[in-house]
Amino acid sequence: MTRISSGLIIAGAYADKLRRVMFATAKEKADPKEIVRATGVLNSTLFEVFREVGIDKGDVVRITIEFEIVNGTIEWKWDTLEIQHYKLVPETQEKAKEVLKRILEKAKAPPPIELKVEFHTARDTEEVYVVKMRVGKEYTVSGVVGVEFIGETGRARAIIITPEGKALSYTFSVNYDPNPHKVASDIEGILSKAYGEKAMREIDKEEAKKILQELLS
């Protein structure tokens, strides 16, 4: 017996594909008219099967079946028929677009930074924190955060000069804690996230240096 396969193909094109496969497989063994007759029987039978099981023209199928030639007649071995069915899922197309958008946005995002935030000093209602960025193997002072606490919430403004020389500003809120090291840890997480999401605003470098000097003096 001989096995033929349609390969993966759109269901609406299976008939032509199977006819071509049969001619390529059996042209030396059977009369062309017999090949046309036999593939006609196979295709009409498959048409009925597809309709009954709900295979649409736009779906993808793979059909395999065995046959043998007896006295010049092609006989299908129906018990060997296998139909693999892959249905189009429109939702996947929309989800793929959303995922692709996120991947492309992520590719545009700046590389992650390694930074540390350390408590510097407290004056009146304001606390000052130093931002250190990793450059090579060392951490160097790259910015400062001034936090003015009113009750349980602090209004913070960060000024950072990146290793590439870009001056950035970011305003945010941070919760009060009597332990300034806990506040420093919270600020560290907020700044890392903001930098990765490109949420910081670029400002004039000379203006940034002036603010840094004022807060650290």
Specify the structural class.
alpha+beta
Please report the number of helical segments.
5
Low-confidence stretches: none
Rg of Cα set: 35 Å
Briefly characterize the structure.
The chain is α+β, with helices and mostly antiparallel strands and 217 residues long. The chain has helices spanning 14-26, 32-53, 90-108, 180-196, 205-216, and strands spanning 2-5, 9-10, 60-70, 73-86, 115-123, 126-135, 138-150, 153-161, 167-175, 201-202.
Task: Provide the descriptors you would attach to this structure in a database record.
2 domains, D-amino Acid Aminotransferase, Chain A, domain 1, 217 residues, alpha+beta
Characterization of this structure:
The chain has helices at residues 14-26, 32-53, 90-108, 180-196, 205-216, and strands spanning 2-5, 9-10, 60-70, 73-86, 115-123, 126-135, 138-150, 153-161, 167-175, 201-202. Strand 3 (60-70) and strand 4 form a beta hairpin. The radius of gyration is 35 Å and the shape is rod-shaped. The chain has two domains: 2-88, D-amino Acid Aminotransferase, Chain A, domain 1 (2-Layer Sandwich); 115-216, no CATH class. Helices cover 38% and strands 38% of the residues. The protein has five helices and ten strands; from the N terminus they run E-E-H-H-E-E-H-E-E-E-E-E-H-E-H. It starts with a strand and ends with a helix. Strands 5-6-7-8-9-10 form a six-stranded antiparallel β-sheet, with helices on both faces. It is of the alpha+beta class. The mean pLDDT is 90.
